[in-house]
Amino acid sequence: MKRCPRCNRIETDDLLAFCRVDGTRLITDSEAFEPATAILTGGGRSAELTTGHLPNVPSIAVLPFVNMSADAENEYFCDGLAEELLNALTRINNLKVAARTSAFSFKGRNTNVSEIGAALNVKTVLEGSVRKSANRLRISAQLINVADGYHLWSERYDREMKDVFDVQDEITLAIVDALRVKLLGDEKQAMLKRHTDDTEAYQLYLKGRYYWNKRTAEGFEKALECFEEAIARDSNYALAYAGLADTHNTRGSYSIVPPKEAFPLAKAAADKALELDDSLAEAHNSRAFLLYMFDWNWSTANAEFQRALELNPDYATAHHWYGWYLIATGRLDEAQREMKQAQKLDSLSLPINTNLGFTYYFARDYPKAIEQFKKALDMDANFSEAHRGMGEALEQQKMFSEAIAELQTAQISAGESTEDAAHLAHTYALAGKTDEAEQILNNLIALSKRKYVSAHDIATIYVALGDTDAAFKWLEQAYEEHSYRLAWSKVDPKLDRVRTDSRFIDLLRRINVTS
3: how many CB neighbours lie within 10 A of its CB? Predict the structure, then answer.
């Protein structure tokens, strides 16, 4: 049984998350006596809220909506609806919107709004719930003032699925009105822009993004199916093509499939998205990503990143990926600035916080890299990429025992990935553990006959073992397969031992970078 903490009215339908009278979030009797876990309804301000550190402009975090449906499969729709609202609000220049990764990190956590506001540096929080049954929807949404926990606006919508676009528009405009944000120029048109009128295609797109955000091989496969089905229903759905491009890009950069299979498909999808809608920052960002990682077309990639950031200056992913581009080109001070800007926009993103550490790693500032990787691991002790970065930085400090421990942890956390195995073998070789390094090397070579294993990873093991000729044999194969990791050859510490070799200088020339 749940009751409203304000009017004390008891709701007998446990599926209702919010009071029918005033829209307040319902709590159980036990929660009423646990203020640390209950939703804040007044008082209890954090230091950040009382010392004036919040932004002067209106600001908001859009939390993932709660799935109140009987079918757990509708989780994708709840996440997707919140994400679509978030994306619409980012079109407003005078509104600060917390990035998706940071806002969604509170999913499933009973955190009060004052803590969310302090963590994300926002003044307001949008939360809601969805009950979906066949073609019927019940969507509840409320905008909460972080400082005192009170509602600035709340509403409930009982509609059919075909009306979902109207509901999104109504919620977005209500938020703008409640925050007293003045819309400039074409902001309203951009904010309310509809990319499809097909609700089935729309739901498939939301489901595709839901699976893509899982960042797993299985998730990518399901995402591809969803985006392709969405496109089959609406061949002019630019966002679905952008989602398809992102999925092919990540499959290639995660070494799930060979680069020559993944990146050309990503390019075709990104080009189609931009043909349909040149204003999509996501598609420009995806195109930039593959242009430098696969095509080694550095100047056009730079222009595409600039266009993405021009279209959406607060797009954290564009700053993040542009930071990686700047690392590859050796512009390391600029890379750190871009990565810090991404971190500012998406402060709770594990990849961004970890990859800031890599900007220090590639700049050979290993103590600072280790410090940043520790911060990322403080956020999530099981994050494999942070363990990998820590291991690589410790290796460069010749702290081999500690590095091996970190890389072993990374390999376990990442599910025995071939890339992590190669990093571990590289460290074994430098530590003088030749037998262990060669065992992993031989396993990877054998495995490469059955599935894709990056030739670049095998080459780096041979570099550490001191077998330069074998290293260049595999580097040449990496060039032929367009291994994405070649893009960072100019700055990669793992290749320092062969950096002065004429064959390496020629390799840099062929991938259009200079030593």
Answer: 18
